[in-house]
Design brief:
Radius of gyration: 22 Å
CATH class of the domain at 10-154: Alpha Beta
CATH architecture of the domain at 10-154: 3-Layer(aba) Sandwich
Largest sheet: 6 strands, mixed
Strand order of the largest sheet: 1-5-4-2-3-6
CATH superfamily of the domain at 10-154: Alpha-D-Glucose-1,6-Bisphosphate, subunit A, domain 3
Strand content: 15-25%
CATH topology of the domain at 10-154: Alpha-D-Glucose-1,6-Bisphosphate, Chain A, domain 3
Structural class: alpha/beta
Number of strands: 18
Number of helices: 14
Helix content: 25-40%
Length: 450
């Protein structure tokens, strides 16, 4: 049976189950039943990104929470990590973010945080799904003074940016020219203010959300305009966020893109130099480039790899006591600073590394030499593991034999959408691109593309 919750909450086309007002209303009730203590009135922090459907889903979710007896602190448009931070620091029972992260505006999603500010464990999510299935509106109605109320918090953004600014360890004011791409998303109200608060000269693009332009040819998946802006305006560094600002792609002063692998390598070196890399360990996923393996090995740093999804990186980090981990996509975790991935926090930590070494980001990035890599996404008509098909397995095995020890192949399903991902690494782009395309075509022929 397919789980209601994916690797990052519930996500899909907005106003269609499971991302419908009806499900959101029932989720609000279920969340109180599963997450709230038996005594006392629970408090839930609720935030959203800038999607057109955000207020619709927020209204339904808040109604469900209040109907079940929870008070709601509405923080409005705020990055996902801001919701997690406020959930923990305001001693709330839980937090909820309404966002589909890097997806197009037509999609939306709902993700929950525990009282500690961490994403929920699978068991907690499954318990909520079970409540929805078994009795979506069962039980005696909450009445009188036990009914919850929703209150807007006017200082949520300032509380969050004050926290982020407090993690900057360099010299203030920050004498750096910074470019920001806010993806017309949740970073727009807070990111420019944060870096101005640090004293940086700030140039901004894609910070005018209209409900439909979130992630549209901008942000961490499409940083081309920011790259050009960094070069044209002679900026020192650029930071591109996604729709809910939980991931970051950095741009050095030459316009080169630095993804999560580079960020992990730079941060590992910075923390190790300061004697602050707990357990001398970094956690990433199977998508991490082979170059990261080689770099960390040379630093005598242990690298753990998990399945894709920052929640799985988090689980491994907490299990082994690591403080640094993340994904190639730019979800980076600094567990000595925060409970979840945070694109804005990641940007500040890169500025810390630049300040400590007194060198440009480009020079810091030289620590990592990447293997050529290609990623092909195959959109399918329905979710289906490609590796269950003999034709796909044979194509992968033949390609692995051809690459021998000079590369690797990974075929997996996306955790949030009906997309098969084919990743190939090897000695040159000329070698790996035909391999990736052949495997992708085999998947399409075997399963059927969308």
């Amino acid at each position: 049976m397919t789980r209601l919750f994916g690797t990052d909450g519930i996500r899909g086309l907005a106003n269609v189950d499971p991302v419908s007002p009806e499900i959101a209303l029932a989720l609000g009730r279920a969340a109180v039943e599963v997450l709230a203590p038996a005594d006392g009135k629970p408090t839930v922090v609720v935030g959203r990104d800038t999607r057109l459907s955000g207020t619709m889903l927020e209204g339904a979710l808040v109604a469900g929470l209040c109907a079940a007896g929870a008070d709601v602190l509405s923080v409005g448009v705020l990055p996902t990590a801001g919701v997690a931070y406020l959930t923990h620091t305001l001693n709330a029972t839980a937090g909820v973010m309404i966002s589909a992260s890097h997806n197009a505006f037509e999609d939306n999603g709902i993700k929950f945080f525990s009282a500690s500010g961490h994403k929920l464990e699978d068991g907690q999510e499954d318990a909520m799904a079970e409540v929805l299935t078994a009795h979506p509106a069962a039980g005696a109605p909450v009445t009188g003074s036990r009914v919850g109320q929703c209150v807007a918090t006017g200082d949520a953004g300032q509380r969050y940016t004050d926290f982020l600014a407090s993690t900057f360890t360099g010299t203030s004011p920050l004498n750096v020219r910074v470019g920001l791409d806010c993806a017309h998303g949740a970073a727009a109200p807070v990111a420019p203010e944060l870096f101005r608060q640090l004293g940086a000269h700030v140039s901004v693009c894609h910070a005018a959300p209209d409900g439909q332009n979130i992630n549209q040819d901008c942000g961490s998946l499409h940083p081309e305009r920011l790259q050009q802006m960094v070069v044209d305006e002679a900026l020192d560094v650029g930071f591109a966020f996604d729709g809910d600002a939980d991931r970051l792609v950095a741009i050095d002063h030459t316009g080169a893109i630095l993804d999560g692998d580079y960020i992990l390598a730079i941060s590992a070196q910075d923390l190790q130099t300061r004697g602050a890399l707990a357990r001398n360990m970094v956690v990433s996923t199977v998508m991490a480039n082979l170059g990261l393996d080689k770099t960390l090995q040379a630093m005598d740093v242990e690298l753990h790899k998990t399945q894709v999804g920052d929640k799985y990186v988090m689980q491994d980090m907490r299990e082994h006591g690591a403080i640094l981990g993340g994904e190639q996509s730019g979800h980076i975790l600094y567990l000595d600073r925060h409970t979840t991935g945070d694109g804005l926090l990641t940007a500040v930590q890169l500025l810390n590394a630049m300040s400590a070494q007194q060198v440009p980001l480009q020079e810091l990035a030289q620590i990592l030499q990447k293997f050529p890599q290609v990623l092909v996404n195959v959109r399918l008509q329905h979710r289906c593991d490609p590796l269950q098909f003999d034709s796909v397995r044979k194509a992968v095995h033949a390609a692995e034999s051809a690459l021998n020890e000079d590369g690797r192949i990974l075929v997996r399903m996306s955790g949030t959408e009906p997309v098969a991902r084919v990743m190939v690494e090897g000695p040159t782009q000329a070698v790996i691109e035909p391999i990736a395309e052949h495997i992708a075509q085999t998947i399409t022929d075997s399963i059927g593309g969308a």
